[in-house]
Every structure is written in C-alpha cells, then in structure tokens.
Write a structure and sequence with these properties.
single chain, mainly alpha, 3 helices, transmembrane, membrane, transmembrane helix
C-alpha cells in the first residue's frame, strides 16, 4: 500500500491534533529518502548474475572436496 505524505497527514490529523500530525509527517518525510531504498531492474539483474557466479563457484569447490575425500579413503 502506497501512501503519500499528504494522505498520512490527513489520517493523522483525524486522530491527533493538527500540530502533532504536521510535526510527525515532517519528521517521517525527513527520515525517509525514497530513492536510495529502491532497487532498479539493473540492480536486480546484477545481483542475480553475482549469485549464479557464487553458486557455481561453491558447487565446484564442494565437488572437488568430495572427490578429494573419495580418493583419500
């Protein structure tokens, strides 16, 4: 559910006094920076590629360890 600052102010002003609602929405607006918390499609694609590389590398290392244990015994 997306809610804007003005909608938040309207909701809070119904329950609280208008001064407190304004201060609270100002505080929330100052603390939340919307653009730094969002991932783009490019970021997600890069993360997927990195995860695949790590999984393949770990699989190869695990396979070599199992083969090493097999030949040791």
């Amino acid at each position: 559910m997306n809610i804007s600052i003005t909608q938040l102010y309207a909701l809070l002003s119904e329950k609280l006094d208008k001064d407190t609602a304004e201060q609270l929405t100002s505080y929330i607006e100052a603390k939340v920076d919307k653009t730094t918390h969002l991932a783009s499609k490019e970021d997600l694609a890069n993360a997927k590629t990195d995860m695949i590389k790590w999984f393949v590398g770990l699989f190869i290392a695990l396979a070599l360890m199992i083969i090493g244990l097999y030949f040791k015994g």
